[in-house]
Amino acid sequence: MRKCVIAALALLISAASLAQGLPADKIIGTWESVDASPRLRFEFYKQGSKYLGRLLYASNMYEADGKTPKRDHKNPDPKLRSRSRYGITNITGLEYEEGEYTGGTLYNPEEGRTYSVKAKLKNADELDFRGYVGISLLGKTMKFRRIQ
Predict the structure, then answer these.
(1) Has residue 10 got a pLDDT over 50?
(2) Is the pLDDT confidence value at 57 over 50?
């Protein structure tokens, strides 16, 4: 009987450790949107204990010539309005806690607005990313897949 209880506890402990998900740094890499319009590509990286995202591509980020990246002309900071949208770090402050990345912000250069964000890895190659205003219920989830 004692062996059965010990075996059951070991099984519960191992199942609990698997349920905690992937290591926090698994978000690091290049991700592409699956179902979003515009199409997006971000590179996530770590700075200190926080995770950030750099905009590598958006299907609406180029001028009519299809080659010249648009400027960040709607940025609330007048000093940043002449910068290119390409390569800006517009996801900041994500912290890994209990299997989720929370507490971050997303700056949308198309609108010049900032949103709260959270993210969760479904597996090593699928990411759910939610942007919202106020509470998470008032938001939109985008699905991303790892490309690097």
Answers:
(1) no
(2) yes
* DSSP assignment of 39-63: -EEEEEEEETTEEEEEEEEETT-B-
Helix ranges (H only) for the chain are 2-19
Q: Give dist(CA 21, CA 27) in Å, integer.
A: 12
Cα–Cα dist 86/57, whole Å: 7
- State the Cα–Cα distance between residues 145 and 148, nearest whole angstrom: 9
Residue 68 φ/ψ, nearest 5 degrees: -85, 120
Tell me which amino acid residue 140 is: K
At 143, which amino acid appears?
K
Q: Which two tokens stand for residue 119?
A: 């993210």
Contact present, 40 and 33 (Cβ < 8 Å): yes
Give the C-alpha separation, 113 to 72, whole Å.
11
For the domain made up of 22-146, the CATH class stated in words is: mainly beta
Q: What is the CA radius of gyration of the chain?
A: 19
Work out the burial of residue 63: count CB atoms within 10 Å of its CB; fewer than 13 is exposed, 13-18 middle, 19 or more buried: exposed
pLDDT tens-digit profile of 95-132?
999 899 999 999 999 999 999 999 999 999 999 999 99
